[in-house]
Specification:
single chain; alpha/beta; Rossmann fold; globular; two-component regulatory system; Sig_transdc_His_kinase_KdpD_N
Length: 376
């Protein structure tokens, strides 16, 4: 009896249809401001325009850089919205005007930007997603430190809390990603020459964020991210051509007392991404954590953590049970979980000796499941 060849599933065909209906996204990714992302984006826009493609600028920030401003001159600009906020006039991309103008390609700078209050969406990447849904192709720019999953890592070695962030999935779903690379030495030379910031800002910038160590480390992270994103893109292309294979599933357990749940979620998201595995963020709700017994502030924290998990590409869930370990194990059986990620315990040493930790009990009873402990 002949063996029937493996055929793509209906779900894969639906994904292909949706991708064809959407606009295409190209991202110029850099390690820092000043490496030349906006300039490269505008040069590509000019090349496409000269080839007869309808290209328009949705929003570009030249930051007073002469060579960047020079690239803007020959491209049509869709006038931005001007919003008065606390006595300051802010310029934002006019999403409705871009949708009405409907260029073939729209250039949109600074993908992680936070929009002014009163805008349709809170973040610029959400504006871009709306353009893509409308079938408009978008070329954009972003720095690597704005990726949500890198927040803790960037803060640890630079001391800077990056406020404007976007979900990694936005970049992961891009059709093309170009790394605009520049060595730390060359970027510092551009800084000294006044090609990145005005002269009055250069010295302070070089004393704080733009140190040789920070620039070198961010460049290393960018190159590592690019290698992973290229690999992910190749795997996605292979999945489009062949049936999806089974893969391990991962879960991260949360409680209302998780000491640093956001950091734990970011690490879990990066691990799942590297393993190409679906993952779940599971709030374990025991009788002691019933919502009638948990204060409002704790409930808000739990909600924010589950929302962050969704932004990072996980599936947020609440699972109820009599105690933490038995509930986690019940979840692993029901959802066929193969990897459980837990944060390192912070309990005092004498309590660990007297009764053992949740982590120790979980390891003792988790036959067939790998338990990974991360330091957050």
């Amino acid at each position: 009896m002949p063996v029937e060849a493996a055929r793509p599933s209906p779900e894969q065909f639906l994904q292909l249809i949706r991708r064809q209906e959407r606009g295409r996204l190209k991202v110029y990714l850099g390690s820092n401001a000043g490496v030349g992302k906006t300039y490269a984006m505008l040069r590509e826009g000019n090349r496409l325009s000269k080839q007869g493609v309808d290209v328009a600028i949705g929003l570009v920030e030249t930051h007073g850089r002469a060579e960047t401003a020079e690239q803007v001159k020959d491209l049509p600009i869709i006038p931005p919205r001007e919003i008065e906020y606390r006595g300051v006039t802010l310029r934002e991309m006019d999403l409705d005007a871009v949708l009405a103008r409907r260029p073939t390609v729209c250039l949109v700078d600074e993908l992680a930007h936070t929009n002014a209050p009163g805008s349709r969406f809170a973040k610029r990447y959400q504006d871009v997603e709306e353009l893509l849904r409308a079938g408009i192709h978008v070329i954009t720019t972003v720095n690597v430190q704005h990726l949500e999953s890198l927040y803790d890592q960037v803060e640890r070695f630079t001391g800077v809390k990056v406020k404007e962030r976007l979900p990694d999935s936005v970049i992961a779903e891009a059709d093309q990603i170009v790394n605009v690379d520049l060595s730390a030495e060359d970027l510092l030379e551009r800084m000294r020459s006044g090609k990145v910031y005005p002269p009055e800002r250069v010295e302070r910038a070089m004393e704080n964020f733009f140190t040789p160590g920070n620039l070198t480390r961010l460049r290393e992270i960018t190159l590592s991210e690019m290698a992973h994103l290229i690999d992910r893109h190749n795997r996605r292309a292979e999945a489009d051509r062949a049936p999806m294979s089974a893969t391990d599933r991962l879960m991260v357990g949360l409680s209302s007392r998780s000491p640093n749940a956001p950091a734990l979620l970011r690490k879990a998201a990066r691990l799942a991404d590297r393993l190409n595995a679906p993952w779940y963020a599971v709030y374990i709700q025991t009788p002691a954590e019933d919502l009638t017994r948990v204060d409002a502030a704790t409930q808000r924290a739990i909600g924010k953590n589950l929302e962050l998990a969704q932004q990072l590409g996980g599936v947020p869930m609440t699972f109820k049970g009599p105690d933490v370990v038995r509930t986690i194990l019940a979840f692993t059986r029901e959802y066929d979980i193969r990897i459980v990620v837990m944060g390192k315990t912070r309990r005092p040493w004498y309590r660990r000796i007297l009764g053992g930790t949740i982590l120790e009990h979980l390891v003792d009873h988790s036959a067939g499941v790998d338990v990974m402990v991360v330091d957050v």
